Amino acid sequence: MVLSGKNLTVHRNEKILFQGLSFCLSTQQLMTITGPNGIGKSTLLRIIVGLFKATEGDLKLESKGKIYPLAIACHYLSAQNAMKSSLSVIDNLKFWAEFYGQPFYHPYDALADIGLSDLAHLPFNILSTGQKRRVAIARLLLSYRPIWVLDEPISGLDHHAQKIFSTLFQRHLNQRGMIIAATHISLGLKEHHVIALEHFYPLRKK
DSSP for 74-134? Predict the structure, then answer.
């Protein structure tokens, strides 16, 4: 399976956000997206998962000569955790498990993998910032999708939690997955591709 982007250009508020961006990502590979705030990292992620459309260029997911829709192949973790604050931790994960269908991990097993089994029945809204992020990442384990698209996935996590997720991310890659992450923090894994978005910013005329 190969995910490729060709000559992607994005306009925002009649200005070019980035232009001429191309990449090619294969199974078991990690691609990180770097750059200062506001340069378009989150926008690029949303384009990859189909929430936004590039002004120019093409995205394609191909396997064995066939083209597949990107949206159903991606798990998207935005900067928001996408959990209902009034529900318990486990009920949030059960909701997402039912929403996704095609179960891959039981919600309790996903919680065990992130080290938060003891908090299963607490309301989500009383968790710490780091704990909330850990639960949000546990959502990705519930149903297998080969491409994980992550926006600052380990921001707010302590060193111990970061190591837990480095292990989970590597496991996903080992399961023939791909990871695309916008991050200021190293995920602790080999980076096969790095996109520095400032290199795709149009040159200003003097």
Answer: EEEE-SS----TTSBHHHHHHHHHHHH-SBSS-HHHHHHHTT-GGGTTSBGGGS-HHHHHH
